[in-house]
Amino acid sequence: MIEFVIKRLLWTLLILWIVFTITFVLMELVPGGPFDGERVMDADIRKNYEKRYHFDKHPVVRYFLEIGSYCRGDFGISMKIQDFTVTEIIQQGFPISATLGVLALTFALVLGVFAGVSAAVRRGGVYDVGLMSVATIGIALPEFVVAGLAVILFVFILPLFPAAGWGSWRQLVLPTICLGLPYAAYIARLTRTGMLDILSQDYIRTARAKGLLSRTVVVRHALKGALLPVVSYIGPATAGILTGSMVEEKIFALPGLGVHLVQSCMQRDYTLVMGLTMFYTVILCAMNLIVDILYKVLDPRIKLEA
Amino acid sequence: MLQRRLLTFAFPLLFIAVVGWTFSQERLPPADFTFCNGTDIKTIDPATVTGMPEGRVVDALFEGLCRRDPKTLVPIPGVAKSWSVSDDLKTYTFTLRDDAKWSDGSKITAADFIYSFQRFLHPETTAEYAYQLWYVKNAKRYTTMKPEIGEQVEVELPREDDVKNTVRGKIEHGTLRKIETRQVEEKGEQVDVRIFDVEIAGKVRRFCSNASLALPESGIELSAWTMPSFELLGIKSDKPDRIVLTLEHPTPFFLDIIAFYPFGAVNKKCLETHGSPLWTRPENLVSGGPFRMEFRRIRDRIRLVKNEHYWNRDAVQLNSIDVLAVEGNTTMLNMYLTGAVDWVNDVPASVGPILLKDRPKEFDPEPTLGTYFYRFNVRKKPFDDARVRRALAMTIDRREIVEKVTQTGQVPAYSLVPPGLVGYEPAQCAPEDIAEAKRLLAEAGYPGGQGFPPFDILYNTQDTHKSIAELMQARWKNQLGIKVGLRNLEWASFLNTVRLGEYDVARAAWIGDYADPNTFLDMFMKDNENNQTGWGNADYDKLVEAAASEADPAKRMKILHDAEAILMREMPIAPIYFYVSKDMVQTYVRGFHSNLRDEHPLWAISIDQQEKAKVRTAEGFQ
Model pTM? Predict the structure, then answer.
């Protein structure tokens, strides 16, 4: 186990280096730069700017300068939010994105598993068809449509929650639901498929034959096996929820990292783009590692190989 | 087994921790006044800001020699209580008030202003607005580091630490004797590097900012910056309460510029103690404006509170202000309609007509100093022919654009300079005239659009730009028989493409920096970076230059009018519409005035509490 973790960490370092390099090259290739604005800078002022950010140097030199400061743990100062370092921006934004993420994921898991199991148990019934149709629509509807509908319903028609902003729990309810819904729908489908698969297995039939209550069979014996696909989905789902919260963050004006991710690319804020890309890479690698370990814990038959 | 138990509890525990953390966040008491400021601001450093959102915050935190009247925009006293202008209109003498104080209670002195101006012009500060102060004698040569032989120079030596643009390195003063230019390879190409021979205390020393040349054996010392001595600039103080600014030319709009927010004074001690960017933090910041910063959360809000040491504190009505960073005008509108904010400065175009009809008291667009126009790339055929450009411009249906697309009261534009500038009559371009357009096109060799090469309209990705481009496309196709394509790019790529001249026709916009036609017209001088059309006209350049040194205001405006007339005849651009303000303000807000610059200083704003209570009950705000 320990050997596995160490090996994976070494892989992560390699991945980080590759991602760094690709990001750097992409930023070099993309047209436009951090010094472009509607008001074109005076050529002399622009020169001073380029000097300040080492843009007067050859890209290869800059690559090594940057990778050097990354190795020292210095991620630099954002070029477009100039009063803060990249580290500070992540420190302030990540807890908000993470809060939203954990809440949305919890919501998605609870709703998804419940709906999935209910549908599987009543396979083919109106309930099953109804739930799964709703789930399909839930996956298909774009987030901004869901969010827009939620705002119309729960802000204007039924004034239960504030329209946007950050600071109280009430402001988190709508974004959590909107962010969690598509994931809940997907989890519901996964759970249903897993459950149907398990319910047809011999040991379930044995359990039923022994006269156990239907609920006991489902909850104690079948659920654990049916959840394996869901567990493996948690990794990418977490990553998706963390990086995919930008629509909600924008519509509900939440100061998380999602908006930073989009804005920094649009504004060519090279330092922040690099910082966020690296940060998300670390998060993704960590999530995948945790999921692999979880797997092993849930199903001891699985062998871990790096 | 234990592992599995732990796991079962891990997730619920995490959930509880997160919920606990959310609830433990202290709830903020609401501010007296809350508004949406658009995207998060780039910085609060007055020297390096350019945008409107930044301007609102900087204007509240800092104060320069003058301010602008919230209603008329006429410069009014700020830290300077009075000023006088010499007869040749080239020397401005400002007298500072005794009671102007920083937020830490210390006095604002002329030395702070000298430091602020010097820092503003210093190349390391990279002030994008530096050119605004280049009207001051020798200031441009300071920023662009162009000292002349025989004059006093200052050589700034490199620093060990990395305190950008707040602390200067050791400075050597001397007389410039010689500039030698050598070629050095950089980025695979030869670049010129200058070596300065400077006589310091009777001895000539050689300085260069390129590390590969400044080696001990070459006898060249490494320097960071070499520029004309700051003493040579027209920025002087002979008394602790007096500042004298001397200009290159009489510049009638100079006071308007000095009242602009980038020229707010910064506190030398604060900047030098904390360095950049730490001096901008609420716990470190010492500012001299009507408000100080209580806290700042990235992409969330800036909380401003009244500065108790501000000289005009009695005039400041608001005790606290929340400046919210909100992207997206739909979100802004939602917040406004639920009473979460008191002012939004943008609304979605689609609801414009409804707001105009239903809420005329809150939403009352007024013309501002901005123009939406199309650039023609005159370096490319067939746009090198003025007849073609005129024909295309004459075909535009501006009314359709403002009525169907922008929808919030925009005004069709037939000139580059918007109306409303005192003493200036904008020169008009030809009105819509399809028959004349067809004739011009035929004269240029494309009768009925035959043989006209297909071209693209370039715009940055946004719904309104797209809709306008589509209307143009249809119009040019149906009326002139020209095939037009659409090409959209995201913002940064768009800017780059236009700057490199890789377009046929591109959308553009310009917001005036100061209340004078010059802010629009100098843009189309041949060498101006913002021209971007490739167009140049010697007569035009001569007129704009002549206006810069003309002391008589009436004559000056006439010269500028003549310049614009050339532009409107040649048409490297086609004006489309003038911008209007899109402010939506609750009826209980007082001291909020419409003006040409869409500028609404926070110190002038107050709240009518009685009215507020009434509105909140009537609207059912929580």
Answer: 0.90
